[in-house]
Amino acid sequence: MYLGDKIKQAMYEAGIKTRKHLAELMGCHASEVSFWMTGRRGMSLENRKKMAKILNKPEDYLLELEDNVNKPHPELELI
Fold it and tell me: What DSSP element (H or E) covers 7?
C-alpha cells in the first residue's frame, strides 16, 4: 500500500475530511501534507509519529517499509 493511501484511509477512519484539517492538527501547511501523500517529499520520523498519533494509529503504522512507500500512486485522488 502506498503511503498516501494509508494516510487517506486513516484520515477517513479518524473523521478528518481534508488535508487542510490534518495540516492544522499537524501544525504545518496543507501543501506539506499533499507532498507527503503524493511522495514528492519524504516524511520525517517525527512527523510520521505525530501523524500516526493524530490519526489514532500505532506509531509504526506509517513506518512500514515497502517498495512503493515514497513513490506517488498514479491513481491517488487527493482529498
Answer: helix 3-14
